[in-house]
Amino acid sequence: MIELLEPSGSDDPGDSNDPDEAVRPGPLWRHALWAVGVTAAGVALGWATGLFRIGPEQYGLPSTAPGNLWPYLGAWTATGLAVAVALRAAAARVPLYAPGRIALVLTALGTRLSLGWRPEAMVLAAMAAAALTAALLWCAFALRGSRAGARPPESSSSVG
Fold this sequence. Notes:
By secondary structure, the protein is mainly α. Helix content is about 60%, strand content about 0%. The protein has a two-stranded antiparallel ribbon with strand order 1-2. Helix 2 packs parallel to helix 4 and helix 3 runs antiparallel to helix 4.
């Protein structure tokens, strides 16, 4: 299952041996298909875990509340797609650790929480913004680390 989320094949033989942290080049259709697949898996996982209760009655996570599911599933499909696209775009440029797992977990968690508690529109938007912020921070750390690693070494000799 993990191999589907994180393909270990690499086009560049100079890549590191760690398949979780590799640059993922390729055609646009492959990136788009990956983003759609990870999003669909995350929403499906969140929906499937919503079929049962997690934890005790006092403080556990409730099962899916009765009512219309489609607005929440649609909102988390759009959010999950944005998260997956951001992570995959960064992974195509620099080594990024586990973009598939991050996108899957953020999407599934948001879907599961939304289906259990049915938040209002503003709370749902805040949850989506938090997921996007987490993904963008993950990308920013990778991009920053890559840029810092590409600097030429500074000379220690001083003139004068």
